[in-house]
Every structure is written in C-alpha cells, then in structure tokens.
Amino acid sequence: MPPRLLPAPADAATRAAVFPRVRWMGSKHKLLPHLAQAFADIAPADGPGTALDAFSGSGVVSYLLKHQGWAVHSNDYLGFPGVVASAGVVNHDTRLDADDVARILGPAADDRDFVRRTFTGVYFTPDDLEFLDSAWSHIDRMQGGGRAVAIAALCLAAARKQPRGVFTLTGDLSRYDDGRRDLRLSLREHFAERVADYNAAVFAGPRDCEVSSLEIGALEPRRYDLVYLDPPYAPPADDNDYTKRFHFLEGLSRYWVGDTIMWDTKSRKLPKRVTKFSSRRTIEEAFREVFKQFHDSPLVLSYSSNALPDLDTLVGLLREAKDDVEVRRVPHTYHYGTHRTAVRRQVDEYLFLAR
User: Fold this and answer.
1) Along the 355 residues of the chain, how does pLDDT read in single tens digits?
2) Is this entry keyworded Methyltransferase (predicted)?
3) How many other CB atoms are there within 10 angstroms of residue 345's CB atom?
C-alpha cells in the first residue's frame, strides 16, 4: 500500500482555520500553522495514522488533524468539547438544511421551560431564554451528526451573545456593551448564522474519527502514532477552572441532564472538576503520570512560558519517558476577552516534540 501523503502544513492550517471559533481559554487558532508543521514532522514515514487530541477544548486542533489525514480520537473531560468535535470531526457529511433550521426556529415541540426558570435575570433576555428551551424541544428528537451540529451551533450562539464569552458575568451586562454586532443579534439570529458556520466546516475526512469525554487517566491504554497534549496551563496566580468560565455551555450541550446545579451561586454554576492539572502543587505529578501513560507514543505538547512548571522542569519530566525531546518556541499573544481593554499577554508558546 502506498504511503498516505500529508497535505502541506500551510494548506492544512488554512483549511482548519474555518472551524467555528469559540472564545476558549488557550484556543490554538493562531497557532495552527506551527502545530500543522509539528504534526507533519512527527508523523510516521508511511503517513498519518492514529492521533489522540487528549485535551481537545475548542476542537480546532482535532479538526486540523482530520484535515491532515489522521484518524482522530478527540477527548476532553468536559462534555461540551465532545459535542463540538462530534459536529466537525466525527461528522463527515451531515449538515442541517433550511427545513431543519426552520423547524428549530419555529414553535416549540413541547412545553419545557427549564432554561427560563433557571436563568431568568442571570443570562440573556426572556425571548432568548425561551428560544433555548424551544430549540432543545426539537434537538431532543434529533440523532447523529445533525444533532451534534444543532447543539454545537446553539452553544456557539450563546457564547457569541455573552459579553466577553464567559459565564462568570451575570445580571445587567450593559456596561460591557462595546457595540459589537454579536451583542445586538438575538439568539435565534445567532443560531441560524452559527449553523451556517458549522455546515461550512463539515467535510469528508479520509479516516474514521471518535470522541470521548473522560479524564485523561481514564482513557483506555493503547498506542497512538501521535498524542497531542494541551492541558490546562497552571498559572502563577488565578486559576485554570474551565467549568467556572464555561459552565453554561457545558450544561446547555446536554440540557443540564444529570447535572447538579449549585443553586446558591448567582451564575448557577456546575461543580468544579478538580484534576491534578488544577493546582500548582500537583501539576508536576500530573505531567509525569501522563508522560508515563503515553510513553510508547510520539508526543507533541503545547505549553506557555507564563505557566508552571517552567521549561527546564518540563524537559526533565519528558526525558524521564522519552529519549528525544525537541523544543520549539513560538512568540504568541494571548488575547482573552472581547472588550477593548481585554488582557493581551506576550509570551512564548512552547511546542515540545518527544519521540
């Protein structure tokens, strides 16, 4: 069998950049060209094989890997990233047509009102909250790739409508109104546009892909031809709690089925998911365990120069499991938030290639 040829890294990165963008902490959209090159450099001689995106987050790196021809296993301990990956990575051919969109935008299929009862005065207008209930009354009757596209579009609509893209802000948010169009659109209007975004991203990849929502240590042991690691960065200050910032998207992705809402919080948070990557005290142990877990797979690790542990420590931990460790530095500006004074941090993004 002839080798499977990788597309040029620049071409794959350009195609992957169309993936609908969620304002996700640590999103790798701007780093796609560098990641595409790293994945090409570490690919087996006979072409791309199996790849694990172990902390898939926004889904864009899994989508890049699919464009490069890998059989992608997209995993994240949160459920929302799994829905996004199901819509754009696992799904090869299903799009929502005009009738699908019209049905979801139309009258409700039942009288559910959970979102209205739970989040009135917390997020969005009454009409927007009513739409979320109504949309889910139809989505509950859908299956497969179409269901995934609908949920992903609904969640992206909510993320775009929410000032700064995070759900730590509640109540009257007019003080955050900077005139952006996203804040003017209703969730119904957003949904129709976001469906178009996901429809445009759907393509038939050459390999079957899969999704899981597990803690990384719970993944079934197996060898991959590439393991990409982009864990939560442990900052010297603050925290890396994704649930705190994106709990609404996490709940909305499954209509809060099975969730325990923290009713004593104004934002109606979900409980924090604590892992060893959550704390400066346990971060080194977390890395050591993951490197050991995938010791027989080639690794690419993304990490930031403004996070803990530092470069030398990470190299030392990698060399406990790998003989060949290469470090690439990519100057990068993290821009978190949508407001004019959003924090911009100039850092180096480290890409570790370990064979």
Assistant:
1) 566 778 999 999 999 999 999 988 889 999 999 999 999 999 999 999 999 999 999 999 999 999 999 999 999 999 999 999 999 999 999 999 999 999 999 999 999 999 999 999 999 999 999 999 999 999 999 999 999 999 999 999 999 999 888 999 887 777 778 888 999 999 999 999 999 999 999 999 999 999 999 999 999 989 999 999 999 998 887 788 999 999 999 999 999 999 999 999 999 999 998 899 998 899 999 999 999 999 999 999 999 999 999 999 999 999 999 999 999 999 977 654 444 444 556 789 999 999 9
2) yes
3) 12
Distances (CA, A) of 164 to 169, 171, 231, 266: 9, 14, 22, 18
Question: Per CATH, is 9-81+208-239+279-354 categorized as 3.40.50.150?
Answer: yes
Q: What's the full length of the chain, in residues?
A: 355
